[in-house]
Amino acid sequence: MVLPENILEILKTLNQAGYEAYVVGGCVRDSLLKRDCADYDVCTSALPNVVQSLFTHAIPTGIKHGTITVLTPQPVEITTFRSETTYKDHRHPDRVEFVSSIIEDLRRRDFTINAMAYHPNTGLIDPFGGKKDLSLKIVRCVGDANQRFQEDALRMIRAHRFCAKLGFTMDKTTQEALHQNSKLIQWVAVERIDKELKEILRYDPYEIENMTQLLSKWMPELELCKSCAQNSPWHDTNVLHHSLRAITFLPPFDETLALALLFHDLGKPATKTTKDGIDHFYGHSLESAKIADRICKALKLSTYQRKLICSLVKHHDEKLPLRLRTIYRFRIQMGFDDAWMQNFFTIRICDLKAHSLKGQQSVQSVLAFIDFYEKNKNRPMSFHDLKINGKDVLTHTSFTGKDVRKVLQRCLDLVFYDPEQNTREHLIEMIQRWQVI
């Protein structure tokens, strides 16, 4: 394992002071997988106050739990070997005890692939078979899987994240323990759920199919979508698999659009009807938008994200006839800007690509509309694009109050369809004529 100079210097400083020190956890795992290591964590037998005294730029970021952050110049967390006692809230240890053994420190960690340490002189320390599990592409808990998940319920969703990120599967014991303890996920802050969920969607959306029970507190519709068939010429899979497939077409990944695609058909189970053997989902977009709004609030997403996601979900199935009236409806009547339109096009294309071969044929019509839109999007679309403003209406006519806005709207309607009329002189002449009429 090739370590950066600043990490080697940290290990040397601790060793020369008479203490053990190792790099540990994710950096060791990623090195064995020949993946780039972004962060290096160090563990040591030195107590926190000793670590702080050995380094000039040391910050006690988590001294209660034995962690000192050293700026070298990148921040590196150095944590004293420790064991942890009971976890009453299924998230945080009630008490931390410092220990003298690296093996004891590794014993408290979540998964075998994260319970490895390394030092250039002693090599790899792997008491729980993490290296073997890496070769087998397995996520397995250290020791008793039930105990690991009961200690910290976040580990359950982290297990899925490692499966998604590394392309691994859980060993049977870990998987069974996760299902038995899935209700403990309620102890995890929803902000952490949101963060892990977005990472899973980034690396492998299909992992969500294995998580419907775990996520049921916030998204019970996932399980319903998983069992909701779509018997129609336009689909070839269940609702959930279709939605997850759509996410894989994002170019590139965008967490807000990924969530919109995850939510876009959640209303289908509630709106499903069947006629002549063909399934229909009339009104599912509106129902999905209502569900999306509830989930966005539950996940504490920003107001901006919530509004964008819900509007995209609500309109994701809109027809797009090649008419100026279609652009007028989106940009002027609904008030969506060009950035929204680009996001809408992305959602529409990803959704259609995740249909059956017959359903995918509609992609061409959407591409044709996108081309039509791009050729016409420079038409006046807002009051700001008009060559007159409210002050001009007040100055040159007797219109006042709410009528001023109505006049400007009428002007916008006019020049959208005929941009050549968007001149100051012509518009003033027009509004003066309307005043007389």
UniProtKB/TrEMBL annotation:
Its EC number is 2.7.7.72. CDD domains: NT_ClassII-CCAase (cd05398). GO terms for biological process: tRNA processing. Transmembrane segments: none annotated. Residues 167-205 form the tRNA nucleotidyltransferase/poly(A) polymerase RNA and SrmB- binding domain. InterPro entries: Bact_CCA-adding_enz_type3_sf, HD_domain, NT_sf, PolA_pol_head_dom, PolyA_RNA-bd. Keywords: Magnesium, Metal-binding, Nucleotide-binding, Nucleotidyltransferase, RNA-binding, Transferase, tRNA processing. GO terms for molecular function: CCA tRNA nucleotidyltransferase activity; metal ion binding; nucleotide binding; tRNA binding. Residues 21-140 form the Poly A polymerase head domain. It is an enzyme of class 2 (transferase). Residues 251-321 form the HD domain. Pfam families: HD, PolyA_pol, PolyA_pol_RNAbd. Its cofactor is Mg(2+). Belongs to the tRNA nucleotidyltransferase/poly(A) polymerase family. This is Poly A polymerase head domain-containing protein. The lineage of its organism: Bacteria, Bacillati, Bacillota, Erysipelotrichia, Erysipelotrichales.
